């Protein structure tokens, strides 16, 4: 089901458009909307009523949001290029999560399917 939802989101965001995300420490990040289709929480905001820019992500500091964007960019690139690089992506993911426990916990919270960020 997640793949179907993801495919719908990528179609929805097919057109290149930039969005701004603002972290809890007021850092702003300009990101392609298609990249952020990798984050269910951000996508829910983008497809929901009253979405506006910048999208405030008050539970996430700039360092964690930067990692989230890095992850989303890598996975979006893999989704858009069906070059069979699944093993490369698995290796990249394994290295990505080699962080201290506090950072890993924050990333898990952000990527949880139940995450939602009030705008």
Automatic annotation (TrEMBL):
Q: Which GO terms describe its biological process?
A: jasmonic acid mediated signaling pathway; ubiquitin-dependent protein catabolic process
Specify the superkingdom: Eukaryota
Q: Does the keyword Cytoplasm apply?
A: no
Q: Which Pfam families match?
A: Skp1_POZ
Q: Which residues form the SKP1 component POZ domain?
A: 18-76
Query: Keyword Secreted, does the record have it?
Result: no
| SMART domains registered for this protein in UniProt | Skp1
Extract the InterPro entries matched here: SKP1, SKP1-like, SKP1/BTB/POZ_sf, Skp1_comp_POZ
Q: In which pathway does this enzyme or protein participate?
A: Protein modification; protein ubiquitination
Q: Which UniProt keywords apply?
A: Ubl conjugation pathway
Q: Which family does it belong to?
A: Belongs to the SKP1 family.
Q: Tell me the protein's name.
A: SKP1 component POZ domain-containing protein
State the organism named in the record.
Liquidambar formosana
Recall the taxonomic lineage recorded for the source organism.
Eukaryota, Viridiplantae, Streptophyta, Embryophyta, Tracheophyta
């Amino acid at each position: 089901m997640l793949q179907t939802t993801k495919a719908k989101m990528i179609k929805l965001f097919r057109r290149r458009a930039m969005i701004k995300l603002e972290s809890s420490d007021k850092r702003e990040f300009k990101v392609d909307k298609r990249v952020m289709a990798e984050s269910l929480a951000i996508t829910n905001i983008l497809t929901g009523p009253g979405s506006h820019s910048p999208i405030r992500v008050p539970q996430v500091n700039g360092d964690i949001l930067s990692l989230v964007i890095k992850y989303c960019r890598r996975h979006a690139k893999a989704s858009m290029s069906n070059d069979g690089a699944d093993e490369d992506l698995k290796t990249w993911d394994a290295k990505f999560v080699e962080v201290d426990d506090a950072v890993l916990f924050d990333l898990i919270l952000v990527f949880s399917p139940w995450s939602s960020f009030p705008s």
